[in-house]
Amino acid sequence: GKSALAQSIKSDVGRAGCFFVSGKFSIRDRTEPYTAFLSVFNSLCDLVLSSRDSGVDSPNLVSSLKILSSIRDAISSESSSLMGIIPKLSLLLDSPEGTSNENARTMTEENFVLSRNKLNFLLRQFIHSYCSQKTIVMLLDDIQWADTASLELLKVLISDRHNPNLLIIGSFRDDEMQERDHPLATCLGEIRASNNTTVTAIHLDNLDVNATNDIIAHALTMTTDKTHNLAEIVHKKTYGNPLAIIHCLKTMQDEGFLQYCLGTLAWRWEENKIQTCICATDNVVELLISKIKKKLPMDVRKVLQIAACLGGTFDSSTISLVSEKIKSVAVSDKKHRDSFINEHDVDSAHCLDVCVDEGLL
């Protein structure tokens, strides 16, 4: 629930006139530099591009133009070097088409040419250009998987006393940082020792019965005194894990143990069946696997398998392309004809919508 909690402030940040951007590290991409920051930087470019290209005269347009001017002043002479890390910077600076792709191909070479300190300086200037006009709230998810270059940049940004308009939220799992010399633990220790900024640690525990009752009462639009018994049952089943609580409620509804009564215009439930038929677990992975196997049609499961191979972010057109390629191979190879995509056409867009509705994407 750490990521969901951090993402929950996004709308409030936007209403306050600030920018909310996020990126996610992955154990699979641990050897790749700046993976989460790449998402953050490209998102920042998108925010200015959308405002600039909208043509709507507004305070956002004015601030976006000022940000753009500041970026040009700060990094114009080195912009080509940064385009390998921030591909959408070429659109922001109206560089010739293909420039970002060319720089992306030579990013590793460029990083060797540019000293790490110089590169971090340019990226810090890029962030400064935004923070001169807007406060940025930056969410970096699963930073326990961050590469060395990203941790160095994180220290540079957090320790920058000349940029007070930047709030960085980092999320990580304690159980994946057991060793003393974990790179993230070392990084956080150095940041705290520098005394240049305030670092606040928030430890997220499972919810108690009262908090569980608050969630259930809110979801069912009922008072807490009416849902207390149900909350006690759900808490015992889920051990107070927030995502497990939500999944448990959905499972009860799917199984018919939790129903909305049109006669009384209120929810009703069968406590005995919930007690005996709903398994107790706080393991969200187990819950999701069970949900995928029991509830999702085969086509949706196959498309979800493709999506899982594409990393943390992807677009629907890529899913459609891969699905068609796999289907064409399966059709031409009798041995694999039924192994992945069935003979009928698969509507990958619909399958993705189902995954979104089920909270899997």
TrEMBL record:
Highest taxon listed in the record's lineage: Eukaryota
SUPFAM superfamilies recorded: P-loop containing nucleoside triphosphate hydrolases (SSF52540)
Domain Orc1-like AAA ATPase: 1-169
InterPro entries xref list: AAA_16 (IPR041664), Hybrid_Histidine_Kinase (IPR053159), P-loop_NTPase (IPR027417)
Protein name per Swiss-Prot or TrEMBL: Orc1-like AAA ATPase domain-containing protein
Species whose genome carries this gene: Helicotheca tamesis
